[in-house]
């Protein structure tokens, strides 16, 4: 889709301004691309070779700032724009589609307003064994059901409260539905708690969103933990989703291990078990197609080597074996069209890429 010329002109104008920004304002970003080969991507034994954007983390640039107001109070903001490093297009059909918020912070915590990450995202990602330090990556097994376990990641028109007290970090979030005549339709509501003490990290989060017409409520939750011993860290997690319309249910459980082989070389591996049940349908078809129950298993391995403090290269391999209705969800997400005539499908992928921070 073409973006309005004004968006590109604004983005171009912001960069030189950021280069001469006032103290307390930071320009930052990540550029990540990878070459990926995927076998049987559509369930009908068609393979794909592609240059993918955001191989091990989504490419982005942003501005963030902190002004000391005195008395321990601060004014804070963050603007973050996603882009595709393979073709240069803006992501999310918005200039600052990743984050756009402003607020206040102090000893009492922080209160921010705008487009922001929900609690499921901020807490749930902490326990995915393959994503530590980078964020989600292009072929993450958590996407088996169609990237549904994080409730759209970000909340528009939202108010978010966060505070850390000792080993506990708390987030509460609310997104206004802005539907005329209703205070409930289109709203989001959630929160979570993370506990971190020494080598132990535990977390739980919940978010729900009502559809604009009020006919469906999506409820997502996440529980997980990690434990570090020397150079190794073990991870365990479970995420779930329930849709009130049709009572469709989804769940994924995972376990994995990360290990710092050398100061520059980190390896990780994980196993994922996905299940769906109830009146499950396709996500992106104009007329939803019923898929029903199913399950899938996935194993993935990642090796990441730091060439410097800012630049890394990585290699990743994964295999997904889907059965029943899970084949439809899996193939629709990756190939665009659900393979509804296939009861059993195996997809294998290999990816090699580079990531640079600035």
TrEMBL record:
Membrane topology value: Multi-pass membrane protein
GO cellular component: cell outer membrane; pore complex
Signal peptide: 1-21
InterPro entries, A to Z: Gram-neg_bact_OMP, Gram_neg_porin_domain, Porin_dom_sf, Porin_Gram-ve, Porin_Neis
Subcellular location: Cell outer membrane
Assembly: Homotrimer.
Gene Ontology biological process terms from the UniProt entry: monoatomic ion transmembrane transport
Pfam families linked to this entry: Porin_4
Record key words, sorted: Cell outer membrane, Ion transport, Membrane, Porin, Signal, Transmembrane, Transmembrane beta strand, Transport
Keyword Membrane: yes
GO molecular function: porin activity
Protein name (database record): Porin
Domain Porin: 11-318
Protein's UniProt keywords contain Cytoplasm: no
